[in-house]
């Protein structure tokens, strides 16, 4: 591997590396050879480097690396820059600018899988790893600066000078003097995946007996047809689904019927808020006839015969005939099975697939997740024991999975629906809209020992009950389970395109996840606007617009002010929007551009007047 060292003072760090096996060292400094050799011990280190076959290059500007190396020798596997500084009494702003230009220069000479190592004195970096931590404005803000050039912080650890044979720091205020490096940290940066380009995507789906195509809502473009549950997938959501199925199959006969479930529904599901559904407009000329619809799988949910008017993107609006939407739940398909009596007593029917729901931006609210729906029918008289066996099996499997991953036994409980009151997560609240719930399945782990709702337990409604059978069903959010079991703090990480995520689950093995993007920078922007007279503000549409414009980099939207103008009665709202990416570099300039675009879209699509 080729290793580039920049800003060497006396070349003692380079000399310590030059004996490493299979490593070609290129050691550089900013000064001329005459100036550098005058530092204590530098001449000896330079001779050692040259004798070992290393390259020593002088007068190298770390902000113009491409200019110092021929095209065939520009690719380095690792770049070291220990204790960079503009010299003399330069302040934090100048040193940030130095780092920004340095990282930009690195993009031209670093191998695709390469690393950039930057050692800083205690407190300079501005990350939580610094102890004590400086105020943000008084730090070098190294993670935000690196993000501007497309780098993420993948590791940070103490700079252990005592383990480097012969190393001596020098260069205090551009002089041949040492400085304090107690508590210094080495920051390891890697290339981020590139920002996604959200070009329009058309998707084909089965609707009745007809294949139709439609344009995917932009917020879902990077999440449609990802195949996480397919047989060749090593994604943790599939592993958890397979483990749960295997556990249940030990007590019940199991039938998997997920392959034929349609993605689109027609009409409107009863009880579900219009703004919570992703409405779809079919491609021109593809609306199916009622005859073809009747030949397909009958939709078991009672629909009213209207959809919702849309804007030019087919997203929002008022009810109109013949509208279609992405399935928000697998419950209708489960009810079809129950209604048709298409099962034997004691047999488990397992349905699984992605479902789509518009929702507010919160840490555990997902516009798409993988649902596992289990239906069990038992003969009357045996229902209590069978249902208890069914629930115990789910709890035992989850307990076993979590202990196998973390070594800690989680708190898994069934809580009566009435105990939750109004304090429902978006997942639980939406499930409540779909129909009566008997129990919530909650998994408690630190820092949420009281339990996060990951599933709901229902019995069949009265119109689907029979004299012979009792039917119970369980809906499980596989994405939430993957987060809780594998220690994934951000749901967006499940959908990352960065290969380092799946690389932590080889062959589908469940492990505790270690983030490859540490301390990602966040940027706050405020937006305020006047509401149209006499109209209610649709917050879900507001949050969905933020998701679309930012490519899911908005992590929080908080209402800061609700003002009513005296005399006119006009209302104004002010929100604080926080941008932060969990898996890729997000610089302050990109976040600012997103905020400007968001303001434009708010005025155009939500009918508000910006302030």
From TrEMBL:
Enzyme class: ligase
Signal peptide: none
Native organism: Sylvietta virens
Compartments reported by the entry: Mitochondrion matrix
Keyword Glycosyltransferase: no
Full protein name: phenylalanine--tRNA ligase
Listed GO CC annotations: mitochondrial matrix
Keyword hit for Aminoacyl-tRNA synthetase: yes
């Amino acid at each position: 591997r080729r290793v580039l060292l920049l800003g060497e003072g006396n070349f003692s760090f380079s000399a310590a590396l030059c004996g490493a096996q299979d490593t070609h060292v290129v050691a550089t400094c900013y000064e001329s050879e005459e100036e550098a050799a005058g530092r204590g011990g530098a001449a000896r280190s330079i001779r050692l480097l040259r004798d070992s076959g290393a390259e020593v290059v002088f007068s190298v500007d770390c902000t113009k690396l491409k200019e110092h190396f021929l095209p065939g020798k520009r690719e380095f596997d690792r770049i070291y820059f220990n204790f960079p500084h503009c010299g003399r009494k330069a302040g934090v702003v100048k040193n940030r600018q130095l780092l920004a230009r340095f990282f930009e220069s690195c993009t031209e000479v670093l191998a695709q899988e390469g690393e950039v190592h930057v050692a800083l004195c205690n407190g300079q970096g501005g990350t939580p790893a610094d102890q004590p931590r400086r105020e943000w404005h008084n730090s070098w803000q190294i993670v935000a600066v690196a993000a501007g050039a497309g780098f993420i912080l993948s590791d940070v650890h103490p700079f252990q000078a005592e383990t480097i044979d012969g190393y001596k720091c020098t260069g205090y205020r551009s002089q041949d003097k040492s400085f304090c490096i107690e508590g210094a940290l080495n920051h390891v940066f890697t290339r981020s995946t590139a920002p996604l380009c959200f070009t329009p995507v058309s998707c084909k789906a089965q609707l009745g007996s007809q294949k139709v195509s439609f344009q995917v809502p932009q917020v879902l473009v990077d999440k449609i047809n990802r195949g996480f549950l397919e047989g060749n997938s090593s994604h943790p959501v599939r592993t958890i689904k397979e483990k749960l199925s295997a556990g249940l199959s030990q007590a019940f006969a199991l039938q998997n019927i997920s392959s034929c479930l349609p993605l689109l529904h027609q009409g409107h599901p009863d009880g579900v808020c219009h703004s919570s559904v992703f409405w779809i407009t079919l491609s021109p000329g593809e609306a199916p006839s009622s005859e073809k619809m009747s030949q397909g799988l009958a939709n078991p949910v009672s629909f009213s015969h209207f959809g919702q008017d849309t804007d030019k993107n087919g997203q929002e609006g008022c009810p109109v005939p013949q509208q279609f939407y992405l399935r928000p739940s697998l419950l209708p398909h489960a009810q079809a099975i129950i209604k048709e009596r298409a099962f034997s007593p004691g047999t488990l029917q397992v349905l699984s697939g992605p479902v789509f729901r518009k929702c507010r931006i919160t840490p555990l609210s997902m516009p798409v997740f993988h649902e596992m729906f289990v239906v069990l029918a038992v003969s009357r008289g045996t229902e209590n024991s069978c249902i208890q066996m069914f629930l115990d099996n789910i709890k035992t499997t989850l307990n076993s999975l979590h202990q196998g991953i973390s070594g800690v036994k989680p708190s898994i409980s069934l809580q009566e629906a009435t105990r939750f009151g109004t304090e429902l997560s978006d997942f639980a609240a939406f499930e409540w809209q779909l129909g009566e719930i008997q129990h919530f399945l909650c998994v408690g782990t630190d820092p949420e020992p009281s339990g996060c709702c990951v599933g709901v337990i229902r019995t069949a409604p009265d119109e689907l009950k029979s004299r012979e059978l009792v039917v119970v069903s369980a809906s499980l959010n596989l994405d939430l389970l993957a987060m809780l079991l594998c220690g994934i703090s951000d749901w967006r990480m499940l959908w990352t395109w960065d290969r380092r995520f799946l690389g932590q689950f080889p062959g589908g093995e469940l492990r505790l996840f270690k983030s490859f993007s540490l301390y990602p920078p966040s940027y706050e922007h405020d937006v305020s606007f006047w509401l149209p007279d006499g109209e209610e503000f649709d917050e879900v549409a507001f949050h969905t617009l933020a998701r679309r414009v930012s490519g899911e980099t908005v992590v929080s939207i908080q209402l800061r002010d609700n003002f009513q103008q005296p005399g006119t009665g006009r209302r104004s709202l002010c929100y604080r929007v926080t941008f932060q990416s969990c898996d890729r570099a997000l610089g302050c300039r990109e976040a600012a551009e997103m905020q400007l675009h968001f303001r434009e879209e708010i005025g155009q699509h939500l009918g508000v007047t910006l302030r």
